[in-house]
């Protein structure tokens, strides 16, 4: 069955079968997709009466106008041409990397991994290769622990139609300083991209992965529905960076969950710049004692963009620490929503959790909502949260202009200063440079 014919079926059970046939998947994988489709059909579409969706309206998303999956692509002869849209701000540095994946419309166009790491048992490949060549690992971890299939409506749809993404497995005791990189782009209008990132670190392993998403802006609507699963074994360490710069036609849904065993450390950063609509659910489950989760976020919305971030810091064991700082700037008619929850289970004594959300509003028409929450079931904890929403102080702009700084440059300096505390917490110079360039572009320089 051709991709063109299957796209006419829309989002349906037939489309799930057609996708599996196009990929020539084994029966067990096709059956798993169909079971996920049944779950999707059994879950109602999110409504404004649901607390998590109270300020988020998805009624304008017309799934019936979208292709349910992308056609098969092909490998490209030049990595440089593939990455041309990602080079701004020095996002890539090929001289210092552990592996790289580039995917166009969910098909792998380029893949490489350091042979020395492969010899140590490290696996870095696209998610389709993982399902085909590493079946037992795939079955053990894919949407079974961090993000189960029945997590929600869009997660179940993702489980039925996932296509593209990356798989990183680091065995016990292997430490990797250089970053793994994954780049995903969409090149067709009315496209649907269901990328999946699955990272598994065994005991004592260390790794660093950068996910980058970007595309041009097309007419109409497109859909990106991603799931990120981060599985951290005992005493493992993971640095995970996600950079989203989709075109303005994209409706982006992203669910990320990390599970941390005892003494595990997660340092994560989420950058949201693109898409027309972005709904992100980001959570860390601190399941073991002395686990540490650092969760940083930067977003900058302009025009008519809508960004919604929900975060969870779930403490299930004692002596664990979580530290969250999300900062947002917005201008013109943009709208942002942040809602965060620190939840401490009974028995998770000596928990240390912090949550901070700051919003800088650059125009009278923009609007930011911030809703921090605490749910504490233990009696010996330190949990604090804070939220602010403020406009640029006119005197600050006047001060800079009085010293010869043009208005736009003055605004850039103020916005960069607002983000600087988060940027300084990122010990990767090239990512700092990318963020500084992205802020300048958003301000209008």
Report on the architecture of this protein.
The chain is an alpha/beta fold. The protein has two domains: 45-395, no CATH class; 396-445, no CATH class. Helix content is 23%, strand content 38%. The chain contains eleven helices and 20 strands. The chain has helices at 3-7, 13-22, 27-42, 79-82, 115-119, 127-133, 135-141, 153-161, 394-401, 407-423, 429-443, and strands spanning 99-104, 107-113, 123-126, 165-170, 180-186, 192-193, 196-201, 206-215, 222-232, 237-245, 250-260, 265-272, 277-286, 292-301, 306-315, 321-330, 335-344, 352-361, 367-376, 382-391. The strands form two sheets. It has a ten-stranded mixed beta sheet with strand order 2-1-5-8-10-12-14-16-18-20. It is globular, with a radius of gyration of 21 Å.
């Amino acid at each position: 069955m051709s991709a063109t014919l299957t796209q006419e079926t829309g989002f349906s059970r037939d489309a799930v079968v057609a996708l599996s046939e196009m990929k020539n998947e084994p029966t067990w994988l096709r059956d798993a997709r169909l079971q996920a489709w049944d779950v999707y059909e059994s879950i109602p579409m999110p409504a404004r009466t649901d607390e998590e969706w109270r300020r988020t309206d998805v009624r304008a998303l017309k799934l019936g106008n979208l292709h349910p999956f992308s056609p098969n692509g092909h490998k490209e002869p030049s990595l440089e041409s593939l990455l041309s849209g990602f080079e701004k701000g020095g996002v890539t540095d090929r001289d210092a990397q552990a592996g790289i994946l580039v995917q166009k419309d969910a098909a792998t166009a380029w893949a490489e991994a350091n042979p020395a790491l492969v010899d140590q048992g490290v696996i870095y490949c696209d998610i389709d290769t993982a399902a085909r060549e590493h079946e037992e690992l795939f079955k053990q971890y894919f949407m079974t622990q961090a993000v189960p299939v029945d997590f929600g409506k869009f997660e179940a749809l993702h489980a039925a139609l996932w296509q593209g993404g990356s798989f990183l497995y680091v065995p016990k005791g292997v430490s990797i300083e250089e970053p793994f990189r994954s780049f995903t782009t969409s090149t067709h209008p009315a496209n649907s991209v269901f990328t999946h990132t699955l990272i598994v670190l065994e005991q004592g392993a260390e790794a660093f992965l950068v996910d980058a998403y970007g595309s041009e802006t097309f007419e109409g609507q497109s859909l990106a529905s991603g799931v990120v699963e981060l599985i951290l074994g005992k005493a493992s360490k993971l640095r995970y960076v996600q950079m989203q710069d989709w075109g303005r036609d994209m409706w982006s849904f992203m669910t990320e969950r990390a599970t941390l065993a005892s003494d595990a450390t997660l340092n994560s950063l989420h950058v949201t710049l693109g898409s027309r609509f972005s709904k992100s659910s980001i959570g860390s489950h601190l399941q073991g004692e002395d686990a540490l989760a650092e969760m940083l976020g930067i977003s900058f919305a302009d025009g008519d963009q809508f960004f919604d971030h929900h975060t969870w810091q779930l403490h299930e064991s004692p002596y664990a620490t979580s530290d969250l700082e999300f900062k947002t700037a917005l201008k013109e008619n943009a709208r942002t929503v942040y809602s965060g929850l620190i939840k401490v289970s009974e028995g998770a004594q000596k928990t240390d959790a912090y949550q901070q959300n700051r919003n800088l509003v650059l125009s009278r028409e923009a609007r930011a909502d911030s809703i921090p929450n605490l749910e504490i079931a233990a009696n010996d904890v330190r949990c604090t949260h804070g939220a602010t929403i403020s406009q640029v102080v006119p005197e600050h702009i006047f001060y800079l202009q009085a010293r010869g700084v043009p208005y736009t440059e003055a605004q850039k300096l103020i916005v960069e200063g607002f983000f600087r505390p988060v940027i300084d917490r990122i010990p990767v110079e090239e990512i700092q440079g990318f963020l500084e360039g992205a802020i300048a572009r958003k301000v209008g320089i």
